Amino acid sequence: MKKIFVLLLVIGLSLKVYSQNHIKQDTLLRKSFQELSDLFYNSKPDTLKAVIYAKAKYRKALHEKDTLEMLNGKYLLADILNDENIYLNFCDSLIEITKKYLSKKYPSIIHFRKGKFFFHRRRNGEALKEFLLIDNAEGYTSAYKNMYLGLIKSSVDEKENALFFYLKAFNYLKNKNKLHKTSEYLSLLNNITSIHLRKGSLDSAYYYNEKSIRASIESRDTLFENFSYFMRSLIDFDNKKYEKALTGFLRFVPIITEDENYVLLNQTYSLIGITYDSINNYSYSLKYHKKADSIYSIKNISSKRLEDSFKFLLKHYKAKNNLKKQLFYINRLLELKKFNLNEKNKINKTFTEEYDIPNLILEKKQVIEKLENEVGESRKNKIIYISLLLLSFVLIGYQIKRKRTFKKRFIALVNQKEVVDKEEIQPVTKTTNKYELSYETISAIMKGLETFEKNTDFLDSKINLQLLADRLDTNTSYLSKVINQYKNTSFSNYVNQLRIKYAIEKLKNDTLWRKYTIKAIAQEVGFKNAESFSKAFFKHTGLKPSYFIKELVKVNSYKSS
Fold first, then answer.
1. Which residues form the HTH araC/xylS-type domain (predicted)?
2. What is the pLDDT of residue 403?
3. What's the pLDDT at 429?
4. How far is CA 38 from CA 31, 63, 80, 398, in A?
């Protein structure tokens, strides 16, 4: 009798559990997709619970025939089970199914989501393949594709190309009011801010950062609002407002830690370390550079600033004469550089001055030799002497070649009657109009540009695309397109070319100008500082302005004697 009672009790409990689970599944399916996502992330430390919510989201999407939410459900499941194939295989299945149908949305949007997945895992080569498979994309998908192409260009330091794709996306999205609340639009504003920051265009960076802050506040997206303020801290850092930047970086750490954004956390730790070093707080700088290294060790996640941390730590252990740690961080740097080279699929043209790959390998060998103590002092000294001698020959040869190149450029420049662009400017005809602007519009803009050049209005340091467009009674889009087609360059390059031409003619013909400082000349021709003038001068002539002036003075002194 007792056995029968126990058996009935077990059956009763089993039925109760089944009934409760069935009711729970029905309850979950009545929740919205956003509610299920929130439940997933809130329960994430509990894997079993998170799996239930991820599966519920997928089943709800399947029931409602919502393809994109089905994708989201599979993504959550792949995330919690740490198996990316769950998501990628589902993407591939959808691509195979949808490519049979004539649709502008599919399979393009699946390729986009797959590319986005790869990009956020720093697998840019695979991401690019997916984005390039997006055919005939229109509207939002096309805009987002351009944004990610810009991100990939940015990752290999092609700043101008990155900005081109960003602005293509921005020009489409900026007038779509409902999109101002999407994470993609807010992310785009921050990316444009970032690229201007890397170009050294701090005014433009500040302009887009302001837009980003306002848009994130309006959309009540606290995550992007915080990230926008993080970008403001980066601007403060570049403006050498280190204390202010440091406050922003430190405030951002708990936010990205909670969001589990380890790439950004790694970068932030490196930035904090660099900032502390800039204000001469060595101990805290060391602490945060070690934190950046720790994330790399545990998560195998790097960032754009991680190399700075490795360099700092290598220098630190050099000062301590700790050979084992030196070797460790040399290997770290080599590992990081090789990873970057593989991602870019080309040799990195801008190795760091202190530790490019060949020098790191040589230094690694030297440290190993010291550790193993296998080579006598005399032999080691001989190797060092020979290396230094060879390096001296290379440097001397490089300097001689460099001087000859500069001399040829100077002679070519000074012998020109007038500095002109070698590129032929297209005449304004109806057949050359690739932007479908009216002939009258183009002619009016070209006439306005002629007056702009004739009156040397380009010397005004406040001139920008918007201001000039207002003066010519047109808009920035038309003006930019006309300059691109008929001046064969961008607006900023066009203005800089005019300023450099003007400066060259003044320096050639006015002896007083040769006595000016570089800063004074920069201000005279409309640049805000000497550095931007020098960069523009070198870009358009291949010479530094100081060298050009020095050689001009020499030539004139020879003539007078």
1. 459-551
2. 61
3. 58
4. 11, 20, 14, 61
Residue 379 C-beta-side C-alpha neighbours within 13 Å: 7
- What is the count of structural domains for the chain? 2
Q: In this structure, are 506 and 458 located in the same domain? A: yes
Based on the fold, state whether residues 406 and 439 are members of the same structural domain: no
| CA dist list (Å): 290 to 178, 283, 296, 299, 331 | 43, 11, 10, 14, 16
pLDDT of residue 271: 93
In a domain, 547, yes or no: yes
Tens digits of per-residue pLDDT, 102-144?
677 888 888 989 998 998 887 888 888 888 888 766 777 888 8
Q: Is residue 446 part of a domain?
A: yes
Residue 400 domain flag? yes
Distance, CA of 23 to CA of 34 (rounded, Å): 20
Largest alpha-carbon pair distance within the chain?
128
The reply to whether 410 and 491 lie within a common domain is no
| Cα distance between residue 416 and residue 324, in whole Å | 59
Rounded Cα distance, 270 and 496, in Å: 35
Ranges of residues in the chain with a pLDDT under 70 are 1-26, 102, 136-137, 177-181, 302, 339-368, 372-383, 385, 387, 389-435, 558-561
Structural domain span for residue 450: 430-560
* Residues 555 and 464 occupy one common structural domain: yes
- Cβ(335)–Cβ(306) under 8 Å? no
Termini Cα distance of the chain: 128
Whether 515 is covered by a domain: the verdict is yes
When computed from its CA atoms, the radius of gyration of the chain, rounded to whole angstroms, is 30
Per-residue model confidence (pLDDT) at position 472: 92
pLDDT tens for residues 341-359?
Answer: 655 543 233 323 333 454 4
Looking at residue 537, which CATH number applies to its domain?
A: 1.10.10.60
Three-class SS state of 30: coil
- Which pLDDT belongs to residue 15? 37
| Cβ neighbours for 452, distance < 8 A, ≥ 6 positions apart | 458, 468, 471, 472
Helices (H), 417-529: 439-454, 465-471, 476-486, 491-509, 518-524
User: What one-character-per-residue DSSP string does 120-132 give?
Assistant: TTT-HHHHHHHHH
Verify that 473 and 531 share a domain, yes or no: yes
Same domain, 410 and 451: no
Same domain, 404 and 483: no
What DSSP letter does each residue of 360-423 carry, written as one string?
HHHHHHHHHHHHHT-S-HHHHHHHHHHHHHHHHHHHHHHHHHHHHHHHHHHHHHHH-SS---SS
Label residue 127 exposed, middle or buried (CB < 10 Å: 0-12, 13-18, 19+): buried
Among 359, 386, 415, give the residue marking a domain's end. Answer: 415
Task: Look up tokens 């040769």; give the residue.
Answer: 514
Same domain membership, residue 547 and residue 447: yes
